[in-house]
C-alpha cells in the first residue's frame, strides 16, 4: 500500500478518482440456489430482514428459486429481484417497529402463459407506514430512497397516477442503463435522481390527515446527525445518545450493528476528523494535539487505530496531504464496507455515511 502511494506521489501523478471509469458493480448479488431446496424461502426471507416480514402463502413445490441484485447509487439503492412467480404467493408486510423509513418505488412483472411478461401498476411506499399485500410476481424492480430526501411526514405525500407512471418509467430506464454505467457517473445520476424525486414528491397541503403527528420510525440518519453534533464530546456514550434521540439502547444497537456497533462508528468518525486535519497543510498542530482534540489521548493507540482504518500511519497521511494529494484519492477508496450482508444493512450503511460512494 505505502509503496503504491509513494510511487504516485513521486511520479507526479495525482489521481482524482482512479475508479471513475470502472463499471458499476453490484453491491449485492445473491441467489437461493446456494442453499438446499427446503431452505430456499427462508434464505430469501433473510434478504429483507429488518425491512419487511415475508410469508409464503402458496407454493407449487418445496424449492423457491430467486435472485436479488442491488446496485448502490450514493445514498440510493437500485434493486431487482426475480421470483418463481405463478404458483407461489408471497405476503409481505412492513415491520411494526421499523428501523428504516426509506421510500420504495417498485414496478412488478408477472409472467403469463404464451403472453410474455405483464407489467403491474407501479407503487410508491414508505417503509415507515403500515402496508401489507400478497403477490405472485416473477420480477420486480425497485428504487429505495432515504427518508431524509423529503422533510415532510410520509403521510402527507400524495402522488397522482401520471406522476407515478413518470417515476416508474424513469426507474426502468435507470435499471436498463446499469450495464452501461461507470463509477464516475454516480454523482450525476444520484443528483439527478434525488432532484427528480424531491420535485415529484412534494407534500400536499390539502391533505387534512397529515396532522396526526410524526411517524413512529427511527431514521438512522437522525442519530448520525446527533453524533456529528456531539462528536468532540469525550463523554459521548450510548446512554446519552439514547436520551437525545428518544430511543432505547437495544434499538440504538440494532441500528448501528452493520457499522460494528455505535462505539466503533463514533471512533471511526473521529478518526476521519483527524484524517481531514492531518491532510490540511494549513493545520500545523502536532499529530498528538490533533488526536487529543477528538478524544485520542494515547499516541500509540491512536496511531495503531489510524493505520488499521486507513492503511497508513498518521505521519504518512500528513506527508501525502501536505504534498497536495487529496485524501479522497488515498484514504477512502480502498476501504469498501465488508460483508454488507443484506439490503437492510446496506441502507443503514448509506444512512450512516459508510458506503464507499459516500466516503469519496
Task: Give structural notes.
The chain has 360 residues and is of the alpha+beta class. It is 36% helix and 17% strand. The protein has helices at residues 2-10, 40-46, 161-177, 186-200, 220-229, 238-245, 249-256, 262-279, 287-293, 299-310, 314-322, 343-351, and strands at residues 26-31, 52-58, 67-73, 76-82, 89-94, 103-112, 116-119, 123-126, 132-135, 139-145. Strands 1, 3, 4, 6, 7, 8 and 10 form a 7-stranded antiparallel beta sheet that branches.
Brief account:
This protein has 360 residues and is an alpha+beta fold.
Uncertain runs are 1-18, 204-219, 327-338
Number of strands: 10
**Mean pLDDT over the residues:** 76
Strand content: 15-25%
Keywords:
disordered N terminus; about 350 residues; three-stranded antiparallel β-sheet; seven-stranded antiparallel β-sheet
Topology, pairings included?
Blueprint: H1 2-10, E1 26-31, H2 40-46, E2 52-58, E3 67-73, E4 76-82, E5 89-94, E6 103-112, E7 116-119, E8 123-126, E9 132-135, E10 139-145, H3 161-177, H4 186-200, H5 220-229, H6 238-245, H7 249-256, H8 262-279, H9 287-293, H10 299-310, H11 314-322, H12 343-351
Antiparallel strand pairs: 1-3, 2-5, 3-4, 4-10, 5-9, 6-7, 6-8, 6-10
